[in-house]
Amino acid sequence: MRIARLAYLGLAVFALAGCSALDRLANVGESPKMTDIQNPQASTGYKPVSMPMPPPITAERQPASLWAAGSRGFFKDQRAGRVGDILTVLIEINDKGEFENTTTRTRTNTNNAGISNLFGLQGLINRALPGTDNQTLVDTSSALSNEGKGTIDRSEEISLKVAATVTQVLPNGNMVVIGRQEVKVNYEVRELQIAGIIRPADISSLNTISYEKIAEARISYGGRGHITDVQQPRYGDQVLDILLPF
Q1: Is 230 inside a domain boundary?
Q2: Rounded to an integer, what distance in angstroms lies between the CA atom of residue 40 and that of residue 83?
């Protein structure tokens, strides 16, 4: 049964790899195709965001007053505020981290136990265990030595701009935004995706917002094409790397 399951798993892997290979063979000599523009709410895996909300505020109209309770501004502006509106997300990431840890631990234990007088039964012990010494009936020792060293040197720098669409307005006024951008250069497609929750007050007068003001931010920057394909290990190597224990 185990061999049969492994065989089925192998066939499934090769079938998936074959389908992908056929798609690649069909596009030999052509640049990768860009995806069609789609409604983010209709994409696979899209789920509306549910967050803790404060109690709703009941609007009260005051006679002879130009200000309405719950309003965020006196004059209307062109900043994003409704589902379907567009704003620009500024991504400026310049992170650098260096960590170095060294750990050394050594422990040596030595235990001796003996019985010089056990209710007068020393003779019985000597007869049962000839050649034993009552003073050193138990003699144990152990030694443990561990040494570890780790170093991390990471540097990331990204400077991008992407337009995002408001897909949902939460009851407290915060908005869920999702943006996607594709740029094709020769035979390589660069993809940028961003999603998160923003406050209307954090949107600038130019209808832009910085990425660090996005809650639950999800930023993805990568690519697909000939160069990316060459940099990836083959499917067989990936499978063997997962299954082989050595």
Answers
A1: no
A2: 12
